[in-house]
Amino acid sequence: MKNFLFVAGIALSAPLFAQSHGDKEAKEDVKRHRALAQLHEAAARCIESGKPAKDCHEQLRKDCKGLGIGKYCGMRHQH
Fold it and tell me: For residue 54, is it within any domain?
């Protein structure tokens, strides 16, 4: 019973030790999300224009360098 209470106490107190973002970090996150959204919107417009998706994805990859993560700028989906 003591072990259960110890584990339960740790589990319930874990959120108290979680780090949260301050205002500055939150504002930076918002800026990054908006920048990524603009890049993805540009890629969507590129594909809609009739250009090959491969070319549009390559441009997205170039534009996203240093901002998003991974080959598709933080967005992967099924084709």
Answer: yes
